[in-house]
Specification:
mainly alpha; 7 helices
């Protein structure tokens, strides 16, 4: 909730200084709130990686997750606090798992095939309160498919080295897979529950 308050105060200040148009204040409040929550999420992941001993884990997770998340879509938490907990908790799990398992060639291929399938067949998976126009849907699907294809090619040709940081990168792809399937499971559950 503090994100909303901070964004409202910032926009009010910018309106008073004539930096932004008051008619567009609501859009700016929403945009700043998203910016603040995104920055907090990234900083939490960086902090977790530092506590785990190496900031490169955070970079691997964020590089693997964020670009495709934007275009694939999927699960959105109902509050900023829940978003922070889900995002940082899953990042921590990926970092800890990356220290315990190896992402061999087959794991990388299976991971990227699953994500490529989701990108081509399901993306973008829209949030209920953020519908996309048909043009944007088409554009998002194309970008998600291209990004997933690049990951698939990296896996097929075994381009990335076998380091713990790269394992974290591939585990972040499984977070994307989970986030993209949660809305489908919720829809199925709601459909069965409402019968």
């Amino acid at each position: 909730m503090w994100e909303c308050t901070l964004s409202q105060k910032s926009v009010r200040l910018f309106c008073e200084q004539k930096v932004i148009d008051e008619a567009k204040a609501d859009a700016y409040v929403y945009g700043y709130e998203l910016l603040i929550s995104s920055v907090v999420s990234v900083l939490l992941v960086v902090l977790i990686a530092v506590v785990c001993g190496d900031v490169r884990y955070a970079l691997s997770f964020l590089i693997g997750f964020i670009p495709q998340r934007i275009y694939i879509g999927g699960y959105h938490a109902t509050s900023h606090t829940r978003c922070y907990l889900a995002f940082s908790g899953l990042a921590l799990i990926c970092i800890l798992l990356s220290k315990a398992i190896a992402a061999n060639h087959l794991f990388r291929i299976l991971t990227t095939v699953a994500l490529l399938g989701i990108s081509i067949i399901l993306s973008p998976i829209e949030a209920k309160n953020k519908p996309l126009s048909e043009k944007k849907r088409s554009s998002y699907k194309m970008v998600a498919s291209v990004l997933s294809s690049i990951d698939f090619l990296l896996a097929i040709f075994n381009v990335l080295p076998y380091t713990r940081h790269v394992v974290c990168y591939y585990l972040s792809k499984w977070v994307l897979i989970v986030f993209s399937t949660i809305p489908l499971v919720q829809q199925k559950f709601n459909a069965n529950f409402c019968r």
